[in-house]
Structures are given as C-alpha cells and as structure tokens.
Sequence to fold (388 residues):
Amino acid sequence: MNARIKNTPGGYGWGAIILHWIIAVLFIGLFALGLAMTRVTSQRISFEMIQLHKSIGFLLLGLVVLRIAWRLGNVVPPLPPQTGQLERHAAPLAHFALYLFQLALPLSGWALVSTSVLAIPSMPFGLFIMPNLPLGMSASAEGFWLNVHVYLAYAGMALVAMHLAAALRHQFWLRDGVLVRMFAPSFHEGRREVE
Amino acid sequence: MPARALGFAAVAALCMLVLPASAAVSLSTAAGRYAISQNGSSIRFSIANVGGGSLNGAFAHFTGTIRIDNRDVTRSAVSITIFPESVATGESRIDAFLRSDAVFDTANERSLEFRSTSVQRTSGTTALIAGRLTARGKTFPEKFTAELSGLKSGRIEFHVTGRVLRSRYGMDVGTPIYSNVVVFDMTLTGRRG
Fold:
C-alpha cells in the first residue's frame, strides 16, 4: 500500500497523482475565474467571485507547498529510455517552471490583496482571517502587483498548454505511456507487466 | 477646619445642581420647525471588517426637517431623505461599488427615507427616536439616539447615532468579511423656518 501512495522508480504513487490533478484543476480553474470575475457586469457577483478566487488561491498555495515537499521526498520516475536528448533536458526545466508559477501566482495575488488600497481582508472560505503580507498599501504597489499577477497568469497558462501538448504527444504520437502513469499507479504497473 | 470643609462642599454641591441646568440647552426650549441644512450637517457611516479596520463613508446630499413640539417633546417628529448617489468613501472604486446594484442601486433607487414614528425623551437634552427606514423598497423600524448639542438664534444642532442591519435592506454583500451592522454618526444642523 505504501508503494502505491509514494512514487517508485516504475511510476507515480497516489500522493503525486492526486496532488497533480487537484492542483491542475485549481490552477486552470483560477485562471478561468480570474477572467470571469473581472468581466462580469454585476458588482455583487464580481465581489463574491473575487473572494472565492482569493480562497482557492490560498488553498492552491498550501497544496503547492505540500506538493513540492512531496516531490523532494519522493523519487521521480525516469522518462522512457527512447526519449530524445532535447526533451530529456527540457522536461525537468518545464516542470521546474510549472512549480515556480504555481508558487509565484498565489504569492503575487497575496501581495496584490495586501497592497490594495481597498483594504479588503482575506477570509479563505469564510473560515479564518489570512493576514496580509507585510507590504505597504498604495495605489502604485497595487497596480504593480496586479500587472505581475496578470502577466504571470497568462504566462502560466501558456506553460500549462505546452505541458498538456507534451503529454498528448506522449500519449498519441510516441505512445510511450508517460501520460497514463499520471492517471493511476496500477495503469502503469499493468502496462509494464504486459510489456 | 471642618466648618470650612463643609462650606466648600456646600458650594460644590450647589454648582453641580445649578450648572447642568444653565449650561445645557433644553429640548423644551427648542420648540419649532427646522429645515436640516447640509451646511454644518454630516451623515457619516462606518462598517467594521474582520481585519480590525472599517469602511468609513459619508453622504454629501440629504434633506429633512425636525419639528419639536412646544408642549410635548414626545410629539416631535423627524424626517430625513438621503441621496445615496452622493456617497463618498475617499476611494472611487468603493463609491462605484456602493452605488451599484450590489448595494444602493442608485440607478433605480434614488433615496433612503427615514420617518420618525415616536420620540421618547431620555434626559433634558437627549431623546430616543424611533421610526421607519426605507431603502431599496424595504421598510423596517429603526431607532436612533439624538442629543441636542447646540441651540442658538434659530439654529439647532443634534448629534445622532444609531446602528442599522444592512441585510434587512438587501445590502448584505460582503458579509461576514464586513459587518452586517452599519454604525451611523450624524451631525444634523437645522435652521428654523
């Protein structure tokens, strides 16, 4: 059972798989919510959506910290032997960049709400008060962090699109089982046994 | 020595008895009809937030009358009309939010109305004013405390405070981050007319 939760040299365990997919849904969902909340005409709905965006952002930050700790405490299953040299070098860099964006996006959002002159307190899911980062409130600081947050969001989504394209290439072009090993440990183990 | 001390005590006691009556203005001497003037008046409000801060604002435009009955203060009446389009918090984005359909909906609702239904005198200069507040088409009973703070040559000034639950009027947006209680702090200056 332990082997199925933790990664093995043969594939990802449930811990990494579950964190990967929860974070994928939250990360892409936050981008969609961010687009919608700034475009909706009703200010009331917009306010509620922004508070939900903040709540999910703080949840994402916590999960990403957990995920990075999990990654550092687990072996990383190697790429299939037939993987090209370019991808062998590019994939770890892309994964590192993805982790970096997963951290930088919620942190820049936290900086944005901390510096905002609107001074709206953060109360994730209405459960507790999240203190602001020790940054001074000012219109210029708020504008700066808003730009950082927005540009990071678009760049992060471009990176996600690249990651998705690479995964689909593995699945439908190379047919090497790289995507399938992120669905469940047994899928991959079963495939290895068949091979 | 005891006799001198007694003398001081007697003077002090006399001062305490006389001074409040002569220094404070009395509701009973303020009888008349007054038009609330924006000049010298302010209607401020404050909504606490969970972070320990508060959202503070004021209405710049309002109108109203205060009528103080000569024989029976309890038959006095107050009416105030506030124009929420004039709300100002010092931050234009918050003002726009308050004017939107999230709060006052000023495109469809032009005014907030308060009409007193009873005035209960609580001291020589204070009264409890009960009335009906109408906002966004909803009317509920509310109470405010008024203290007569100035009366001079046809000009009267009250300090009025009260607490209103905004959820009753369909303005509960932002709770629980922002309190449901709106604390009003008003200075109402009326000119006899």
